[in-house]
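Lab notebook, bench 4. We co-purified these components, and the gel suggests they stay together. Before we commit to crystallization screens, I want a quick structural picture of the whole thing.
Request: model the full complex, all chains together.
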Amino acid sequence: MKTPKEILTKTTLKRRGFIKGSTALAGVLAAPVLLKHGHAMAQDKPAEIIVRAWGGVWVESLENGVSNAFTEATGIAVRHDLTEDNEIRPKIWAAVDQGRVPPIHINWDTTTNASKSALRGVTEDLGDLAGLDELLPLAQPSGMDGWPLVNTYSYVYVLAYRDEAFPDGPPDSWQVMIDPKYKGRVAIYDDGIGFHPAAQIAGGGTIEDIPDNMDAAWAFFEKLKANEPLLGEDPDFTTWFQNGEIDVACTIISNARAAKQNGIAVSWTVPKEGAKLDTDGMWIPKGLPENEVYWAKKYIETALSAEGQQTWCNGLGLPPVRPGLTPPEDLVGDPAYPTTPEDLERLIRVPTPVLVEHESDWFAKVNEIMQG
Amino acid sequence: MAPGTSVALGPLESWRRRLWPSRLDAYTGYLLLLPALMLVTTLMISLVMIGDNSLHLLDRATFRLGDAFSLGNYQTLAERPVYLRIIAKTMLAAVIVTMITLALAMPYAYLMVRTKSSGLRKLLLISLFLPFFLGQVIRAYGWLIILGKQGLLNATLTSLGLPSIDLIYSFTGVLIGLVQYMLPFAVLLLAPAFTAIPEELELASMSLGGRPWATIRHVILPLAKPGWVAAGVVVFTLTLTDFAMPEIMGGGGNDFIANAIYDGFFQLSDAGLGAALSIVLTLIGTLVVAIIFTAIGAGAAGSVNKVGATNDGDNPC
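Here is the predicted assembly.
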């Protein structure tokens, strides 16, 4: 005779066995349906993908190098949203926090700003993008786990100058920015972005002192203030050079190159103190429907493909994160288009975590000096 | 059907009575106030939320506002001289722009109202309304073309053998742009006030020996007070909160409070600091308008009871 315990154990085993068997059978029967449904979800194409971009040469290059190829391959239209990167960020943050669908699918952003969004937890994981292991180490964001964003190229904040103003050759030092001869005819970004480390060196400080002691940089900015600089954004530099309103500026090489390609007599150089090397990247905000995230990732894969990187980055005049591509003819040997260790030695690289933590303070400090 | 009610209005009137019975007629005024109250309530709710944000500090590990309440953002505003400078510069600009705009708008509005020439009136009206079709940004860019270093003004000066002047990307440039932007607002608020003044009063003043300046000072200005107070308040507050003109015409070194708020929210990603600046701007604007209303009167908010008599008893006749 079986004890109650034996009966109970046997019954339980029977029941467990039945549940296991039923679940397995249900799983086997449902698998094709689930796979088909999942496949359909992933392949369900949206009418369009919205990519935030910067205007001018930036969006033109993206369109020529990436967006057109993506549309051709997938049939999905690409809309470029030219909202300023600083303005789209709080909109995305608010949308994710409030459970709304974000206004864009892909944010083409500075690495520093993208890292802030990653720290806030509003970015999709991009670790499953195809071909990430083929990219340069620069592609992976530093200071955080995984791939909440992917860097797409690097760029240099060069010293751009109007050829006419320097008939004896290019200026060799950032000191030209505080030369009274160019009073009212110098320009930097309105928050000083790209110029902080250069000012630190030009002001007599060291890279090692960043971020703990930047007195040298602020002293240099004070002198710059006395030289009445113009403060603006990317498109302003082109306009100012075009109107002959400035002679020198600290700007991204792409802006100076675009001005030159448009017939404006502008050149650029990496001064002896060095110039800041930085990166931009792409990320996908959380809160998008699953199928749209899928296609947004496909778009970024197109941007990271050999063809995409070649055309896009050559349009911008920037070194891509995919190795082995051909640089634009006009930039071969240009230290502002770094390809060799010697080129990189001349450039100043501030780690992204330092920028994420301190750059806002630097913006505020520059603002304080310039509004004085 | 009530006498005077048309056949077409009959069903409408019937529906109105069903929705709003006659016994509620005494409350119709309150009903009409409802949209305005809803708007003000919405604004107040958003202001309370901004106020709440201003009491939390940004956590840079997560780029979210912290949970703890703090006056740290206000302390930052008080400790950083740049914010005090920006507030002072904005206030100074608001005062200067208000004074210059009123000084230019008064003769313009007076001439527009009093001129016997319909052609001149039309010209003044067209000149007044034309800028409204152009936004502030377009007008600012227009000034860039005119005042730029290689602009129309300097090209003219240079061609005349005169030295060029730097007005663009300066505080003066911002003021010029703002005065031009504010002028139509001021004229539109002043014109009804001048229209309400009977011309006979001006003739009486002059026939009693009053010189033009005495007539302006003792008759026109006091009677037009509702107009110029309203115009002054509108121009002052619009200037106080302006963003585009200092952004475009200031060259980056002549920010107003609104630009600092923008920087707080967008450039620094610090919603708490931006919110604190927003509260400060709101308080300054409210305080200044309250002082003006207390000291000078409610302006256009005070009705003209009868010819020449305003509701604050300031009857010069």
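Residues 105 and 284 of chain A are 6 Å apart (CA to CA). Worth comparing against the SEC data before the next meeting. Strands of chain A lie at 48-52, 77-81, 106-110, 150-162, 186-189, 230-232, 248-252, 266-269, 275-283, 347-349.
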